[in-house]
Amino acid sequence: MNSKIKNTFFIGVTAFVVTLFFSCESNFKEVQKFNFSEFMPSGEADTINLKYTDSGRIKAIMYSPKMVDYATVKYPFTEFTESIDVTLYEINGKKSFIRSDYAISFKGTDIIDLRGNVKFTTPEGQILETEQIYYDQKNEWFFTEKKFKFTDSNKGFTTGEGIDFSKDLSKINYQKVYSEINEAE
What we know:
There is one protein chain. With 185 residues, this protein is an alpha+beta fold. It has one helix at 2-35, and strands at residues 43-54, 57-70, 77-80, 84-89, 95-100, 102-106, 111-121, 127-136, 141-152, 156-166, 172-181. The protein has a 6-stranded antiparallel beta barrel with strand order 2-3-6-7-5-4.
């Protein structure tokens, strides 16, 4: 009889533990679902062509085949996942061009992070190439810590790591540079 009571007690405890285990598993999964928030874009657009104006004057035109907007996340941002082309207009009407494979802009920062085969071309034909560059829209300033190549068809080229410059290239600060300069006769 004693062994019959032990077996019944053992079966009862086992059934209780198994039931408790499965009920906790179920509750744990429910809690996970409750705390899980999906990271979904709030908007997507194909083939966008935006014009930025100030006082009736076009300051920039941006084209991208794909834009994904995450406006409802804690730190909102917009991605340009398939490439981006930007035309910057100077007051005198001259245009500079920027192209990259990818770009991301965090709302509230006025900074655009351009990545992958970034190419910046000035009206005078100067070309800056790098893998990543940041553009501070408010101050109209570019900067990178990555390797770059700056080519001026009349003066040669400069390569290095780290550069920052104004939108019109009137001010340039180099960090580590190596140059080849063509001297005019």
